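Give me structure tokens for this 134-residue protein.
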Amino acid sequence: MSEVNRELARAFLSALGQGQIPEELLSQDMTIWTLTSGTADKQRFLGGIRMLAAIFGGSLVYTIDSLTAEEDRVAAEVQSRGTLVSGEQYHNTHVFTFRMREGRIAAVAEYMNQTIVREKIVPLLQAAVAQSRS
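Here you go.
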């Protein structure tokens, strides 16, 4: 079971930077908690990662440094790199924890350097939201 859960985590992280997580990876009631945004349901999360991918123009890549799996849990140490639509380079480090249920991801928690997120990503996301409302 641990190897199956590792593969689910790998697939999630591989798709994350593209802004499209395949539905078959996620439980219907999947939730996510991030250090910068708190708790979100699956639909809010999927919308947020689409916006995130847009401000990177598809260049955001998550690289796994390590995966540890036990029972229904996986912990992943990860780095993200990409080029923002502003042309600025981005690099951050993350720890993701996953809870699996019935072969799908039921919960994710993401810890990262929030200073980098506040300085580089938040202004671009705020501008994208403001533009979508006008």
